[in-house]
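Render this sequence as a predicted structure.
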Amino acid sequence: LSKGEGALLANEIHPGRNRILAENMERMAFRNVLITKLSPKEIASVYASYFDLVLVDAPCSGEGMFRKYPESISEWSQEQVELCSIRQKEILNDALSCVKPGGYLIYSTCTYSAEENEEIIRWITKNHPFSLVEAPEHIIKVTSGNKQYPDLEFACRRCYPHLYKGEGQFMCCLQKEGTLSENTFNAKIPLKKINNTTLKLLQDSIKNAVNLPLNCLYEYKDKVLVIPENFIKLPPRGITSCGVILGNIENKRFVLHHQFFKAYKALFQNQYETSSAKEANEYLSGLELFLPDSPNGYGVISYNGVPLGGYKASNGRLKNHYPKGLRNHL
């Protein structure tokens, strides 16, 4: 994803967690991510046999988080375990249908109960055309199997907090029957192309600082997005974000978005590379930097090759465009 290859649909139906997911993806600056807030059934209706890989981090009884959140112990019950098992199967019925022939499904939980883990895996292989995939050696070394299910240990792995770093977790990879075909994303994007008025404001604002991918610019709500040509097809509803936010109009001028600076660093004519941790921290804290030889206009600052964000240079002063909500405190 970091190289702009492939595409990811990241779905979270819970509004609060969906917002956090979108914020995290924005900071990571992947170009090819679609974030949605859909039910599993809605996803299955749009993406039947579509994905090379589906990851289901299933809602569970949370036994693996008891150490981190002791208060959750009082909320646990055997009834909750059984209800979670039913819900997991409902989600999986939809998720499994989204895997293309020859593709993979990774199932994970943060609980220990076999009803939500090994028994779920047995249910999958009994009722769906999937087989277990042996866990790689580097995973085997840092996880444990369930001795009560010796026939599944090679694929079903557990993390225990008293043995390994982190909290409790279960994971298993399965493969769907069939031959995996190469994915070609060529779906038509059902969004409006950028209009001429907005495009002129954009070009007047950035001058010649950025080589814009004009054929990939779309309008969504009050923002302009950059959506790659080989993007995943879009659902009819439930979109939180897609592609990269280029920016939006504020006070009759176009303002570039932080995500665009990070994701499309290579498009900028002006770039400033620093290897100074002090200077990088000053930028991340919102301070102006001084670079007498810097050409005027927008640019991207990077620390040891990693893009941090944008700036606008004027007579050697680099006005900081790092978002205020993300800034460090010196």
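Summary. The longest strand covers residues 99-109. The mean pLDDT is 92.
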